[in-house]
Design a protein that fits this description.
8-stranded antiparallel sheet, 15 strands, 29% helix, 5-stranded mixed sheet, alpha+beta
């Protein structure tokens, strides 16, 4: 049995044809049926069917009308299975509704400014797995004319998506990109619902989890915890590794955008990591690391944090805090083979992520690397709603720093009478 799938950007609800309407179509009166057939969504289904028939397919699957979203169980199954449905398809039709060009663009265009310079299809969260999973992706313009395929257009697609041509040509199974690299592909993509930023990349990361719409940012936290339970890849902690200032309570990211700088990060195998550590550890210390390899290469998420062993180097110590650099078992393939270094601060036995760039002064009188057992917090600001002096939970907080302001924060400015000293920002 051969089947094709349609990959597209959803139109407004009134323009798409969804499952209940498709099932009821044959029982409708002629007037109602004709109204549905005039929708842009119906045209997409009909045109896709014509292509599938022409290409010798037996079936066509379209997400708008093939999933009964009234059933939470069916929706959850579909989301958790969708990557494999696309991967097992014989053909995927990628419909770019907003371009009439005869070829895929090779450079950003002003008319697509809203979508980072490329057709909208390349900016949506769900279309990421729809590009990576299928072996055969055929691109169509708004006139349903063929304008390229995944293999022949791999260089242009790599420029647009920052996905390597190796992954585009060979797939995830043969190339095995790092967790951080996969997250980076989703960094600039948007979804209508916040939870879908996590749900849309489940298959790319090879994990499954319950679908709970309404959980907001917690979906991406759950996704990372599920990844930690499934794979051993320290690149999941490399997000923001080039950031020059700031700090975070959580060692896990709030959303895929924080992996923006990770598109060339590769996982480092254990032998290579041990050789690298050997440059900084004494022979005796290195032997301890190698002998305890099982302990060193696993980490576990608990209700109190992520427990793991990490090679730390002390950089600064004050009366109530210590600043460490952390050597992760991953590297930036674009700039050499040295391991990625992040920083963290220990204050009152609690660790927090600290953002800064390595400095030349770090090498002056530096301390040796030592293996430490650490418990990394991951809850962070998931449940934080209101912060600053207007917060009902903490009105004594005088201010928050610029580095703490997040992209989705709403800034409230309260102006009191001139000279009253009662003006405030929340």
């Amino acid at each position: 049995m051969k089947y094709a799938v349609l990959s597209h950007c959803w139109d407004g609800p009134k323009n798409e044809v969804q499952y209940p309407e498709m099932v009821a179509l044959t029982n409708m009166d002629a007037v109602a049926r004709d109204k549905i057939r005039q929708r842009r969504g119906y045209l997409k289904i009909r045109k896709s069917c014509e292509l599938a028939l022409k290409d010798g397919m037996d079936w066509l699957w379209v997400d708008t009308c093939c999933i009964d979203k009234r059933s939470s169980a069916e929706l959850s199954e579909a989301i958790n299975s969708m990557y494999m449905w696309y991967a097992n398809s014989d053909r995927c039709y990628a419909f770019l509704h907003d371009t009439d060009a005869s070829a895929l663009p090779t450079s950003p265009e002003d008319k697509f400014t809203e979508f980072n310079g490329w057709p909208k299809w390349f900016s949506r969260g769900w279309t990421l797995q729809e590009l990576v999973a299928p072996r055969n992706v055929q691109f169509l313009n708004q006139n349903w004319q063929h304008i390229g395929d995944k293999q022949s257009c791999a260089p242009a697609l790599s420029t647009i998506t920052r996905i390597s041509t190796d992954v585009l040509n060979k797939g995830l199974g043969e190339t095995r990109p790092s967790v951080a690299q996969i997250m980076s592909w989703a960094a600039n993509r948007k979804t209508t619902l916040e939870e879908d930023r996590a749900y849309s990349i489940l298959g790319l990361l090879g994990v499954h989890m319950p679908i709970l719409y309404g959980e907001g940012k917690n979906a991406f936290l759950r996704l990372q915890l599920e990844v930690i339970r499934t794979v051993n890849d320290q690149s999941i902690f490399a997000w923001g590794w080039t950031k020059e200032y700031g700090w975070s309570i959580s060692f896990l990211a709030d959303n895929p955008s924080q992996f923006q700088d990770c598109s060339t990060i590769e996982k480092m195998d254990h032998d290579k990591f041990h050789r690298l550590l050997g440059k900084s550890l004494s022979k005796r210390a290195l032997r301890r690391v190698v002998f305890a390899e099982e302990r060193n290469r696993t980490f576990a998420a608990t209700n109190d944090g992520i427990h793991m062993w990490l090679p730390l180097r002390l950089h600064q110590r004050s009366a109530d805090s210590e600043l460490f650099s952390v050597t992760l078992a991953c590297y930036d393939a674009q700039n050499g083979s040295e391991a990625i270094t992040i920083f963290m601060e220990k204050r009152n036995s609690t660790y927090s992520r600290y953002f800064r760039v390595p400095l030349a002064a770090d090498d002056e009188g530096r301390q040796p690397i030592k293996l430490h057992s650490v418990l990394l917090p991951y809850r962070g600001s998931i449940h934080r709603k209101v912060r600053g002096p207007l917060s009902p939970r903490n009105r004594s907080q005088a201010q928050i720093s610029m580095s703490e302001i997040e992209a989705d924060d709403v800034i409230i400015i309260v102006l009191g009478p001139l000279g009253s000293g009662k003006s405030n920002v929340g």
